[in-house]
Structure formats: C-alpha cells, structure tokens
Amino acid sequence: MAERRYLYTPLTDDVVVSLRAGDRVYLSGTVLTARDAAHKRLVEILEKGEELPVDLRGQVIYYCGPTPPPPGKVIGSCGPTTSSRMDIYTPKLLSVGVKGMIGKGKRSEDVKDGLIKYKALYFGALGGAGASISKCVLKARVLAFEDLGPEAIYILEVKDMPLFVINDTYGGDLYVEGTSKYRI
Fold first, then answer.
1. Which CATH number belongs to the domain containing residue 75 in this structure?
2. Is residue 149 within 8 Å of 142, Cβ to Cβ?
3. Mean pLDDT of 14-26
4. For residue 34, is pLDDT > 50?
5. What is the spatial distance between Cα 50 and Cα 66, in angstroms, rounded to a whole number?
6. Omega before residue 70 within 30° of 0, cis
7. In the predicted model, is pLDDT for residue 159 greater than 50?
8. Which of 74-83, 133-142, 155-164 has the highest mean pLDDT?
C-alpha cells in the first residue's frame, strides 16, 4: 500500500523530494485554481517581463474551474480537469516556483522533465468526484482574472484534500508503474 502523508502548503523542496509516485497524500493549506485561459495569461505576463498578480513560489495549482456555490456552501463542484491541456505552459510556471499541480491524466515528457529540473510534483485527483472534493474546501475567493469567470484564478483553503502523487521529481510515473504490475 502506498504511504499516506499529510502535506501543508506552501510546498518546500524538502517535502517534494521526500515523496514518490504512488504516495497517498492529504493536502491542506492554500491552493490556486487555474485552467487553460489563466495559464495562457500567466505565461503571457511572464513573457512580457511583467509582475504576476500572484506569487507562485511554493504554490500548488489545481486544474479546476469551480462551479458557483449552492446556498450555504463555500464552493460548488470543483473536480479536476485534464492536465495535458496545460502542458504547453507548465514548464514556464515551474521555472518561477510552482511546486505542485493537481489534475487528471498523463503529462508530457517536457512536464515530467520540468518536475525533475525544478523539484515539483504532479498530483492526481479523482475525476468525477468534484462534489466530494468540494467538501475539503473551507474558503474560496477569486484572486486574479475575474473576467475569466470559472477559469479565473481562485485561492482555495483546503483541508485534507485526498490525492495521489502521479509524477515525482525522480522521474517516477504512477500511470506507467501502476499498469506495469498488471501486464502479463
């Protein structure tokens, strides 16, 4: 069984290098949401040499576009989106300090190389579990790019968000290693 760890943001190099593909984690602290449009805008700002609206050092980005909160709730459903759509932008964001990403699906070789180079992790969240994941969110507010609606950057305060380490800083890949156990 995979090791179960409790993590707190912001992530440090010491924490990142202590984890391996397959580890089960429960993440608490602040997490930023960002999808395609927000990633594109962040990279455009960096390419212009301008200051980002948020400090990304040590941050975890959740590939999610939360739905509006129902009455009495902090947030609506907030399940993971397909991570590969962010792959074109990810190495640049890793270079400015992002230490973790949460999503679903495989990552490109460029992203996996960036995780090794910049000491970062890719976490998997269960697709289709957005309503369940929303129960881990204690607070939510728009932080940047409000004009993007659900694709704006939100800051979420989470407690014990259940995740798996998919790709680690050593080149480990749970999707490759996990399926190899069942090959004949």
1. 3.20.130.10
2. no
3. 96
4. yes
5. 27
6. no
7. yes
8. 155-164
Structural domains in the chain (count): 1
Name the average pLDDT for the chain.
91
- Return phi, psi of residue 88, to 5°: -65, -30
What is the span of the domain harbouring residue 126? Answer: 4-180
SS (H, E, C) the chain: CCCEEEEECCCCHHHHHCCCCCCEEEEEEEEEECCHHHHHHHHHHHHCCCCCCCCCCCCEEECCCCCCCCCCCCCCCCCCCEHHHHCCCHHHHHHCCCCEEEEECCCCHHHHHHHHHHCCEEEECCCCCHHHHHHHEEEEEEEECHHHHHHCEEEEEEEEEEEEEEECCCCCEHHHHHHHCCCC
Nearest-angstrom CA–CA distance, 110 and 160? 30
